[in-house]
Amino acid sequence: MSFTDFDFDERLANAATLPADLYCNDAVFAHETRRIFQRTWQLAGRLEQLPTSGSYFTFELHGEPLVIVRGKDEIIRGFFNVCRHRAGPVAGGAGCRPSLQCAYHGWNYALDGRLLATPAFEGVADFDKNDHSLVSVSVAVWESFIFVNLDPTSTPLTDVLEDIPALTAPFNLANLKFVERRDYLLDCNWKVYVDNFLEGYHLPMVHPGLMRELDFSKYRTLTRRYYSLQDAPIRPASPKDDQRYYQSDAHNEALYFWVFPNLMININPATLSTNLIVPLSAEKTLTIFEWFTPEQELATASERLQATIEFSDEIQQEDIAICEAVQRGLRSQSYDRGRYAVRFENGLHHFHQLWREFCVTE
Ligand code: FES
Ligand SMILES: [Fe+2]
């Protein structure tokens, strides 16, 4: 029996969660890499990493070496960072260059991917430089965020984001400045972390500090085609609230977006953070937090920003501890599947339906 062979009810109240084996199995992990991560829009970087023509940065995306470059025509393009000669890297690290040169035997490529020069390569029969451009990948930009997609036939990024640009318009994303990045390594499957993010059900037990900030009775999760949104009003501060963190002068809502499969965008008073979930193996996951704030805050409110980051770090440590414990539980012979809390776990059910759509359906 295949691991994709299990019943899944589209009705939340009747459904059981994904089988535990899907969270522990190397074959599932390889399948997800092909079926999910190499077919969906992945956050790759930010426009400020490509300030001028010739700017580039390299990175590895789920096992694929890639380079993103701003061309002489200012167009941002993505390529596999793999030379057409014998697969050497055509760019390393990040920087600014008039062309890309392979580090192995020096083949030279234009910023738009065309092969320009092949040193000492005379006498090769039936070889046309025009047939040996770098292989491109799809790139899309939303506000200051650069996304790539290894599947040329995938749904356009704008259709995946749907009305997120409209919902985030009040926060003026284009004006946000980068503050800090923190990486966290977790001993759990990437879906354990995503499942945990997608429900507020665990807040009372796991996040006492966050519970003080939010009006939990109004916590809700809305699901769309490829994303979901959790929101809750920030509780008004009263004089008795000496442990409160959020100021009440900013907007009074916490918004937590999740874009299938692995991008979270958290909007709290005065800051926005992205959290990218990078699966490393069946039971190892990296999460990359990056914080952003309006330019004026950066100049005047560094203490408050630092407090925001520490508060977020505290919540993350709480989530890491519970996710790693859940991973151990999923490996137990005693457990296979559970049921969804209808009031709180519709976001998980939505994620698990998308998982089935990508991993099970042809
Ligand atoms: S592998 Fe790139 S020039 Fe040989
Ligand atoms: Fe949490």
Brief overview:
This protein has 362 residues and is α+β, with helices and mostly antiparallel strands. It is built from 9 helices and 17 strands.
Based on secondary structure, the structural category is alpha+beta
The helix/strand order is: HEEEEEEEEEEHHEHHHEEEEEEHHH
For the termini, the CA-CA separation is 17 Å
CATH class of the largest domain: Alpha Beta
> Are there runs of 5+ residues with pLDDT below 50, and where?
none
Q: How many domain units? A: 2
In CATH, the architecture of the largest domain is Alpha-Beta Complex
CATH topology of the largest domain: Naphthalene 1,2-dioxygenase Alpha Subunit, Chain A, domain 1
**Lateral strand order in the biggest sheet:** 1-10-9-4-3-2-5
The backbone outline, from C-alpha atoms, is globular
Work out the radius of gyration: 23 Å
What do we call the CATH homologous superfamily of the largest domain? Naphthalene 1,2-dioxygenase Alpha Subunit, Chain A, domain 1
User: Average pLDDT, to the nearest integer?
Assistant: 94
Protein topology:
Layout: H1 26-37, E1 42-46, E2 55-61, E3 64-70, E4 76-80, E5 94-96, E6 100-101, E7 108-109, E8 115-117, E9 136-142, E10 145-149, H2 157-161, H3 164-168, E11 176-186, H4 190-197, H5 203-206, H6 208-213, E12 220-223, E13 227-233, E14 253-259, E15 263-268, E16 271-281, E17 284-294, H7 295-300, H8 302-330, H9 346-359
Antiparallel strand pairs: 1-10, 2-3, 2-5, 3-4, 4-9, 6-7, 7-8, 9-10, 11-17, 12-13, 13-14, 14-15, 15-16, 16-17
Helix pairs in contact: 4-8
